[in-house]
From TrEMBL, chain A:
One of its GO terms (cellular component) is plasma membrane. The keyword NAD does not apply. Keywords: Membrane, Transmembrane, Transmembrane helix. InterPro entries: ABC/ECF_trnsptr_transmembrane. Coiled coil: none annotated. The chain crosses the membrane at residues 45-71, 253-276. It is a multi-pass membrane protein. It holds the Pfam family CbiQ. This is Energy-coupling factor transporter transmembrane protein EcfT. It is found in: Membrane.
Length: 277, 566
């Protein structure tokens, strides 16, 4: 029983805001030295468009499997944070994965499994490709890449700024939650009913905590808005030469060519090999 | 050419009946270091926003008069052009930083104004403020003081001739405050910048500024050279500005006849050396001895260790085999530099932080690792940022919350009592966030003692307050200490420590390195040096005159020093 209690406590500890903050930061900025992070964001976005769109229109298992294996490798290369991977696995499983397992149990045969397998492969490939690009690149490079493709300046600024204030927001949220913990009177959580009551209480507190969070954030943003004005944010948004300067830092290198070539080679070779098998 | 010329400036906010700035005239010379003082609501911040063009270009209102900054008329120049003349650093500077890495943020404005050498400008600005080594770091890796310097770098990257800082050191501990002012001094002397600070720490004004401008009801009462300005003791105090302690002491001694009326009022310790040169220390034998530790222990820490997981690299040890016993009736001041473990120790006592190892006893029982719910009837924590204590939409409901959820009988009555005890009755139905700094702090104290806890912990209760409000809070703290058994305050405010605490605990690197009365701590120069504690100015003054003199307040000083022959 003791280890069971330990385990449940451990899981609760893991799910603290601190942990979430840690994982978000790690995801955004923790892996700037990986191979994926070094690639040019424009190349990577183009690469992503291929693996995010094409699989939906192809039903050839060999091709899909090759795609899947490739994005699996790139995800591994991008050193994605554990939490993101966990959410990914949970997501895929709740979408289609469980159907695959259920149909296996209830005597499904190849004709039922195959369409499900294809669907699962499509979903996973597409998600893993997104994870590789959006979590492997740091938000700044990503937003510069998007800007090159003509996305409005506001969108790319929002992405970068969101990451800048996220840690602040989470800290604020954590402090408000601590206030509830300090002054609140949570129900006793012994027994199954207690555990459920405790969980309901916590969810309610988390929802209530949004009110002070929003107000505190609004208070902060007054300064930010004025500062942005002084620091020329509006001026830059309507100035083409600023965009050019921002994008001049982007450069396609040999690494990018090698990455693209290897991806292509893998796809052609893999598909042929799979079909032959 | 003057750096700033203002003629008949009047500004009224749209919702307001009376003008915030009222027929204001001012001239500031190039290369000046000007301090703006004045009580809350006298229009200091509004005035500064007129200089950088946010008024009238970005903030609406009724504007009349002329403002020339660096030769530019603010009505006809846009905010961008003015930004190359005037840099501005907010009081809540962390909200001014919008980019994730240091160099990025420092060069952000230059990039926006399409300057091709934006990176060099950013680097040059970082060099001026001494952040060159941190240019690749993420902003959340910086300390509070460094974040302030980064905000400053962001402003000077556009190479303005004028820099305006709104309460630059309000949130900083003394070392960082010194650092910021030393850098401002360099910018002023070496780079010829005109610097304007809104400041109420008159000790810093005396040591660094050239001129002082007193604002009153939206106008300029006077602008004088710093020494002369600070000698207007009565006039300053009317506006709730407290002159340096040495100035106050000399003034009082003159009034009491223990110092010659002709003596010049000193504004710094150096000047005090000559003013007080004929004063002799007269030790008294009736000095109140502080209560010995005879009471029973209420909280005991044994070999406490706390580590935090960090997002890159090794885990950080915050408390390192800490041992401490807190007795019933103690009024403890917990001091030490930022990151010494003060906040962690307090969070540990309310169960918000779990120890890595070690034991904590509460009233003789082992309570290590107990949840907040079990500890909160005995220990209450009020944290540094009062905004985070407000979880309801009025302070009445905030104060009542903890009692309501515990079904305390007649909680409504107790709430009313608390509201009147902290003189908050008229504000009871307002949202806590919308109150002034001092009112917010009082409300958070009322929330903290709502459950009548035997142990009360306060994290930086006087941070971010102007001096007048600080005095008010200090009175409130003394009143609380009379009704609450045991109080512990974590603070950088040494005047608070000296006037309030019966016991001082010094933390350094997660360990208790000193523990005793104020004589034990402040009488030990080596200790002060190692942990970087700065005693109140009046203490240093007394020490400079006589090594025997351990005097902590202006009152103690004036009653123990007398001029020979007067």
């Amino acid at each position: 029983m003791k280890w069971k209690q330990k385990l449940s406590e451990n899981i609760l500890d893991k799910l603290s805001i601190d942990f979430l903050k840690n994982q978000v930061l790690k995801n955004a900025y923790g892996n700037t030295d990986t191979l994926i992070a070094k690639l040019d964001p424009r190349i990577l976005i183009a690469w992503y468009l291929f693996f995010g769109i094409v699989p939906w229109f192809v039903n050839d298992v060999a091709f899909l499997l090759t795609c899947f294996l490739l994005v699996m490798i790139t995800t591994w290369l991008a050193h994605v944070a554990g939490l993101v991977m966990f959410i990914f696995v949970l997501g895929v499983f709740s979408q289609t994965g469980y159907l695959l397992i259920v149909s296996l149990f209830f005597g499904g045969n190849a004709s039922t499994i195959l369409p499900l397998l294809i669907l699962t492969l499509k979903v996973t490939t597409c998600s893993l490709a997104s994870i590789t690009v959006f979590s492997g690149l740091d938000p700044d490079r990503l937003s510069n890449g998007l800007m090159w493709y003509g996305c409005p300046e506001r969108l790319s600024f929002s992405i970068a700024y969101a990451y800048r204030i996220l840690p602040m927001l989470m800290e604020e949220f954590q402090n408000v939650l601590l206030s509830y913990r300090l002054r609140g009177n949570p129900p006793d959580h012994s027994g199954w009913m207690g555990k459920i009551r405790y969980l309901i209480y916590q969810v309610r507190i988390i929802m209530q905590a949004f009110y002070p969070l929003i107000l505190n954030t609004a208070k902060r943003s007054r300064t930010t808005v004025e500062a942005l004005e002084m620091r020329g944010y509006r001026y830059a948004a309507s100035n083409r030469s600023v965009k050019k300067m921002k994008l001049s830092a982007l450069k396609v290198t040999h690494l990018d060519s090698v990455f693209l070539a290897l991806s292509l080679l893998w796809m052609v070779g893999g598909s042929l090999l799979m079909t032959w098998i | 050419m003057k750096a700033i010329e203002i003629k008949d400036l009047t500004f009224t906010y749209p919702a307001s009946q009376t003008p915030t700035l009222n027929h204001l005239y001012l001239e500031v010379e190039q290369g000046d270091f000007l301090a703006i003082v004045g009580n809350n609501g006298c229009g200091k911040s509004t005035f500064c926003k007129c200089l950088n063009g946010l008024i009238p270009h970005f903030i609406d209102g009724d504007f009349s008069g002329e403002v020339h900054v660096g030769g530019l008329d603010t009505r006809t120049s846009d905010v961008g052009t003015l930004a190359t003349q005037v840099g501005y650093v907010y009081q809540d500077f962390e909200n001014q930083i919008v980019r994730p890495t240091v160099l990025d943020d420092a060069s952000y404005a230059c990039l926006n104004y399409a300057m091709p050498d934006y990176l060099e400008r950013g680097r040059a600005a970082l060099k001026m403020v001494g952040l060159s080594t941190r240019e690749k770091d993420y902003i959340w890796q910086l300390s509070g003081g460094q974040t302030h310097l980064l905000a400053l770098a962001g402003a000077i990257s556009l190479r303005p001739d004028i820099l305006i800082l709104d309460e630059p050191i309000a949130q900083l501990d003394p070392q960082h405050a010194d650092e910021v002012y030393e850098i401002l001094k360099t910018l002023n002397e070496k780079y010829g910048k005109t610097i304007i600070v809104i400041e109420h720490h008159t000790e810093y004004i005396a040591n660094y500024c050239h001129h002082v401008m007193l604002m009153k009801e939206g106008g300029v009462a006077w602008k004088l050279p710093v020494d002369e300005a600070l000698r207007h003791v009565d006039e300053l105090q009317e506006s709730h500005i407290f002159p340096p302690q040495v100035t106050q002491a000399a003034k009082r001694m003159q009034q009491a006849g223990t110092l010659a009326k002709t003596a010049k009022l000193p504004t710094t310790i150096l000047q005090g050396m000559s003013t007080f040169q004929n004063c002799r220390y007269q030790p008294s034998f009736t000095r109140p001895t502080l209560k010995p530790e005879t009471e029973k222990p209420v909280v005991t820490f044994k070999d406490m260790c706390v580590c935090y997981r960090s997002f890159k690299g090794e885990d950080r040890v915050v408390l390192d085999h800490l041992n401490l016993t807190i007795h019933k009736g103690d009024k403890i001041a917990l001091v030490g530099s930022n990151g010494a473990g003060k906040s962690t120790l307090m969070k540990l006592m309310v169960g918000l932080v779990k120890p890595t190892s070690g034991t904590m006893f509460l009233n003789g029982q082992d309570v290590t690792g107990q949840r907040t719910k079990q500890l909160s009837p005995y220990v209450s924590l009020v944290y540094q940022n009062p905004e985070d204590m407000f979880i309801k939409d009025s302070i009445r409901r905030d104060i009542a919350y903890a009692m309501q959820v515990r079904q305390v009988t007649d909680h409504a009555k107790r709430t009313d009592e608390l509201l009147s005890q902290f003189s908050l009755e008229t504000l009871a139905d307002r949202d806590g966030r919308l109150l002034s700094g001092g009112q917010m702090r009082k409300a958070s104290l009322a929330i903290g003692i709502a459950l009548n806890p035997p142990i009360l912990l306060l994290d930086e209760p006087t941070a971010n307050l102007d001096i007048a409000t600080r005095h008010d809070i200090l009175r409130t703290l003394k009143a609380i200490a009379a009704t609450t058994d045991t109080v512990m305050i974590a603070t950088h405010d040494m005047q608070l420590v000296c006037e309030w605490a019966s016991r001082i605990v010094v933390l350094d690197d997660g360990k208790v390195i000193a523990d005793g009365t104020r004589d034990d701590i402040f009488g030990n120069p080596t200790l002060l040096e190692t942990v970087g504690i700065r005693p109140p100015e009046i203490f240093s003054m007394a020490q400079a005159l006589d090594h025997q003199a351990l005097l902590y307040t202006v009152e103690e000083f004036t009653s123990h020093f007398k001029e020979v022959g007067s």
